[in-house]
Design brief:
The protein is of the alpha/beta class. It contains 11 helices and 17 strands. Helix 1 packs across helix 5 and helix 5 packs across helix 9. The longest helix is centred in the middle third of the chain and has 20 residues.
Length: 439
């Protein structure tokens, strides 16, 4: 195998910096990945796409009764706007936002445990509440991490104009609000919900020697979240598919390989969605997607989640036993870029090395290079190469095109919940204009 942990970790060190969706840092990372591909002799392109980048002008949360005090918060992008003076009402703690929690929600400001799932958000909107407060972090976070609240955007359905302003506070401040016995609270959110930005995918191609018209796509997102370097999530996935690319440079594949480094995964799988949309005319040629989201953590365990026929999950389990590589498998949707491929009918899967509770953490300053291990990383890559070779060079593609009925139903349910089943007319108009320009 032409894989090298020293080469991979040298690239990972250079990639371990803030790469937030739509920022100059994300573009810098895209250019780094493109340069690495070209240095290896593989042509690569950077493909730009539009993303939502709402701009928060003001977010303020003030307890007005029984005593006046201000609570640290950040606005939730695309949630909506309050009047200049804000909205004022009693605070109601609704826990997980079940229907029984929302019986008396009208005219109140709602405090929710964690973040609002789409179905909970819909219930809150219909309840007659004035706005909501979501929570982030842990009550055990050290003092220096409490101000580091991760930015969030709502996922609106195309054309939806719902106005339900929200903010995020730290979990310790949520506990403070409940212990205070707050009677009244004022919420202010002012933002430009419709502001757009530009993100990027990096796509490298190795042409197949025997069946160039058939495509196997390897993917990994390369963006990170605020406050962290994203070394594990997902710098490791990015260098994993880079090493797989190096292997197939020296061992030319029978089928064409696409290596897709996806931008803006952290704000809703935007890069993989854009890739599938921009390449929709060749999606029927994509036989399989192998996605990688986090590898190489020192204390961890291997898993493969297959958004495809169960024959793939069973084969990986069988192969793991043959190779002595411990890995669990299942058929399901995984909250990463493989889901975008499955949604357009391409069989897909995600490899990951995850950490147990109390081990390494993602989505915070704790996602650092020091929790990783090159030996664990290379074991995963070696197994992935052996599995990939079987699919890439098979005489007949062994992955059934048809997705299981249960999986299709889950995809449809998720798409409906997120509004992905409805056409975005503005996006379609832009796509048509782009196609006309190319002609």
């Amino acid at each position: 195998m032409n894989i090298c942990k020293d080469r991979a970790f040298e690239v990972l060190k250079r990639l371990s910096f803030s790469r937030i969706a739509g920022t100059p840092g994300e573009l810098e990372a895209a250019e780094l990945l493109k340069a690495e591909c070209e240095k290896a002799g593989v042509p690569a392109v950077i493909e730009a796409f539009e993303i939502d980048m709402p701009e928060i002008h003001e977010a303020k949360l003030t307890v007005t009764k029984p005593e006046v005090c201000e609570i640290r918060c950040i606005g939730i992008g695309k949630s909506g706007n309050t009047p200049d003076e804000g909205v004022t009402g009693p605070l109601l703690y609704i826990e997980d936002g079940l229907e029984a929690n929302l019986i008396d929600a009208k005219g109140k400001i709602l405090l929710l445990t964690g973040m609002a799932k789409p179905e909970v958000l819909e219930r809150m909107r219909k309840s007659g509440a004035l706005g909501y407060i979501a929570c982030h972090g842990s009550i055990y976070d050290p003092e220096e991490m409490i101000p580091e609240i991760r930015t969030r955007n709502e996922r609106r359905k195309p054309g939806e104009d719902a106005n339900f302003p929200g903010v995020v506070i730290h979990m310790t401040d949520a506990a403070k609000l409940l212990n205070m016995g707050v009677e009244e609270i004022t919420l202010v959110v002012k933002q430009d919900c419709d502001k757009k930005g530009t993100s990027h995918n990096v796509v490298a191609t190795i042409e197949g020697t025997e069946k160039p018209e058939e495509i196997i796509a390897f993917s990994a997102h390369f963006d990170s979240v605020i406050y962290g370097t994203g070394a594990w999530d997902n710098g490791t996935g990015s260098i994993t598919i880079m090493e797989i690319m190096h292997h197939f440079i020296k061992n030319p594949p029978k089928r064409t390989l696409k290596f897709v480094w996806c931008g803006s995964e952290e704000i809703g799988l935007c890069g993989s969605k854009a890739y599938c949309e921009d390449h929709k005319d060749e999606m029927d040629k994509h036989l399989f997607n192998i996605n990688v989201d986090m590898t190489g953590v020192l204390i961890g365990y291997e898993t493969a989640v297959c958004s495809c026929d169960e024959v793939v999950a069973k084969h990986i389990d069988f192969m793991g036993k043959v190779e002595g590589f411990p890995i669990t498998t299942k058929v399901d949707m995984y909250p990463s870029d493989s889901s975008s491929f499955a949604r357009v009918g391409v069989p897909a899967m995600t490899f990951a090395r995850l950490a147990p509770k109390g081990g390494a953490e993602i989505h915070s300053r704790r996602d650092i290079f020091e929790v990783l291990d090159a030996t664990a990383f290379i074991k995963t890559v070696e197994f992935m190469v052996k599995f990939s070779e079987q699919v890439v060079n098979a005489r007949v593609c062994p992955v059934p095109r048809e997705l299981p009925k249960e999986l299709k139903e889950k995809i449809e349910k998720t798409a409906k919940m997120m509004g992905l089943d409805k056409k975005d007319e503005k996006k379609e108009e832009k796509a048509d204009e782009k196609k006309a320009e190319n002609k």
